TrEMBL record, chain A:
The keyword DNA repair is assigned to this record: no
InterPro entries cross-referenced by the UniProt entry: AAA+_ATPase (IPR003593), ABC_Ni/Peptide_Import (IPR050388), ABC_transporter-like_ATP-bd (IPR003439), ABC_transporter-like_CS (IPR017871), Oligopep_ABC_C (IPR013563), P-loop_NTPase (IPR027417)
Entry keywords, A to Z: ATP-binding, Cell membrane, Membrane, Nucleotide-binding, Transport
Chief place of localization: membrane
Reaction catalyzed: a dipeptide(out) + ATP + H2O = a dipeptide(in) + ADP + phosphate + H(+)
Domain ABC transporter: 8-256, 276-522
Membrane topology: Peripheral membrane protein
Organism: Pseudomonas libanensis
Protein name (record): ABC-type dipeptide transporter
High-level lineage: Bacteria, Pseudomonadati, Pseudomonadota, Gammaproteobacteria, Pseudomonadales
A single GO BP: peptide transport
From TrEMBL, chain B:
Cited SUPFAM superfamilies: MetI-like
Record bears the keyword DNA-binding: no
Domain annotation ABC transmembrane type-1: ranges: 87-276
Pfam family, one: BPD_transp_1
Subcellular location field: Cell membrane
Similarity-based family: Belongs to the binding-protein-dependent transport system permease family.
Major localization listed first in the record, in broad terms: membrane
Keyword set includes Transmembrane helix: yes
Organism: Pseudomonas libanensis
Protein name as annotated: Peptide ABC transporter permease
Lineage: Bacteria, Pseudomonadati, Pseudomonadota, Gammaproteobacteria, Pseudomonadales
Keyword vocabulary terms for this entry: Cell membrane, Membrane, Transmembrane, Transmembrane helix, Transport
Amino acid sequence: MSVPVPLLAVENLQIRVGVDGPLAVDDFSFTMAPGEIVALVGESGSGKTMAARAAIGLLPAPMQVCGGRIIFQGQALDSSNAKAMREVRGARIGMVFQEPMVSLNPALTIGRQMSEALKLHTTLDAATIRERCIAMLQRIGIKDAEKCLASYPHQFSGGMRQRIMLASVMLLRPALLIADEPTTALDCLAQLDVIELMLELTREQGTAILFISHDLSLVARYAHKVMVMRSGKAVEQGRIEDILFAPKAEYTRQLLEALPRRGELVPVPAADSALLQVRDVCIEHPGPRSFWGRSVPKRVVHSVSLSIAPGETLALVGGSGSGKTTLGRAVVGLVNPCAGAILFQGVDILKAANRAHRLQCQMIFQDPYSSLDPRMTVGQILAEPLRHEPALTAAQKRQRVTDTLVDVGLPEQFRERFAHQLSGGQRQRVAIGRALVRRPKLVIADEPISALDMTIQKQILELFERLQRQYGFACLFISHDLSAVERIAHRVAVMNQGEVVEMGPRDSIFDAPQHPYTRRLLAAASPLEKRADGSYRLRASVI
Amino acid sequence: MNLKTPALPGVAAIPPRRRRRYPPLNALIGGGLLAALVLLALLGVVWTPYDPLKLDLLSRLHAPNAVHWLGTDEFGRDVFSRLIIGARTSLWISLLSVSVAVVCGTLIGMLAGYLRGWTDRILMMLNDALLAFPGILMALGIMAIVGASQYGIVLALGIAYTPSVVRVVRGSVLSLRELEFIEASRVIGNSELYTMFRHITPNCLAPLCVLATSMFGWALLSESALSFLGLGVPPPAATWGSMLSASRTYISNAPWLGIFPGIFISLTLLAINLFGDALRDRLDPRMRK
């Protein structure tokens, strides 16, 4: 045979929701060669996860394969044969999940969980298994491997857990690794770490990767081939150079267009004094309590100073745990600083009767799924902030809610809907509406787009920018997504371990970063950028 | 973007809310049964087949027949009449004691869960001490203090059931207060009290509904236990519980004395549980189609 046998061949795969429900995946085919990295990109609901899960027979309950074949290493996989599937899963096809916080069992030690698969699929004795686990942990850069085996998952950070997860999957040397958004929940530095580690381990063992992601830059950087999916169908597939750098299909273009780019900024009106001043603020979290209720506080923000002018957007970037969210919460008054002062329009926000701050400073939360009361309608949610505007009559309030619905691009009939009837993007629109309905002067946006799909992210960013142009509010934009920051921020403050390490205008931070941490952040991001001729390339690293 | 641009994805995907034509089955059955029982209890105010308290020693322990539909008891009193009269007392006592427990428990649980810190610790310490007592023992103690009467029972059972409500409510509040919409309410400028009652209470309703309906059943039975110990509603007044406990002596030769109150208690529990489930679903917008 001249044509090598593909590692995995999926032919005309069809997945249905239930027996006669809609098709979740329709007529989907692809092949993978051994050792190849193939990316599956698309928005949520496009069926990319379902297609990959079908390969290991792990479709969630109502979904079922109703047509097509899956051939792995020359052998057809029959998901109805549970025993045969169990032998393939883990041993020959490994899987890494998206959420490192929940994909390890919190009640078992790392050692138990790592050795579990080896015990199942091999005949090795306990001592050898332990030896291999330790070797693998050392391989992924864990210093005290013995201690790690006896620890529990909660003792590690998200990035560390994902490394451990990866290590335990790769212990079995599978021929194929399915990675379902393995780094989406991590900040950009941890993301880079995990991806590089995944590549190293798979290269050593010749493992192929089926990489599910919605991050086009990441895919362009690491994958060999890419498949773009939309509502269950493959839109386009081929080599990275052909698809992502020179897109042909309309939808792929649309996805690439959705990548935020540095653009025109909303002009900042000239002002004499700063709207918000943060002076040497330190914030402590109460540490774990002892039996008698004593706790040793942990300092998460160290003496940070910054200021925001009226109408200006200051972005606060940094990895997880850098204290940026805590600082944002302090500015809005949800956390009290232990030292320093926060002045809003020149008045300390902790002053008892600082009503101006309460009314003029609003917040947009990260998770649109938990930031809206499930028992209130959109209309009630939008009207709630107006309770504290006694100057408005009931009719004016009603009109304001209507205006706000128009502002955030939701039709009037959404007034009567409940949050669970809306999509993530629509919920975030409601959350933005709630923050703006009182026409505040300052809005704190805490990772407002990180829980959303790419094209929705673009829409929300555009909406935000339009509203800022319209109402001229200032914004503290907290994010770890550098490309979004590049799109809308006037100035950028980079935080690391509770300190602002660098602060400056957008262009100077992105083009000439001074601090090594900023450089590392920027290097980790390396976005796709559009060239003059309409093709795309990965931006060269600034270092 | 304005109203005319159809650019917003997913807007058309959600069909407008449909009105369900029929209420769900559990609401129909539960509600129907409950209405029938309440009607029966109200009927007792104006009419009973016989005087429920009148002794008739010539017709002791008659089996159900055409004259006495559900038979007579050891004093010759008509069982059906006593059941009708007892319905009012039993349902009323259970309803009141569950209400006392739910109201007190919710308030204490919300305070403890929302304020946390020392308030929480002291309240929960007291609560756990109460919880450690067997409910019926505590009810006995309270009855001994306030004396045997209808409202004594209500107070006793209400206090005895409060700790479990506190636990459930506090648990819900603790998990709810971490959600972002609670913080959003604080950022808006709402007071703590408003946040508690507008945002937290409605979201605690589902577990409370389930707990309250099962407590209603316990209350019906505990009332009979108290009656059995001589601390219930004093005789000769009839309650389902006291009828059930009095039947114990005659269980072999006059089983109808126990069977009929038993059937009524079971029917009530069934009705309340079905109705409670329906109510919980109705109150939760996520469950509506």
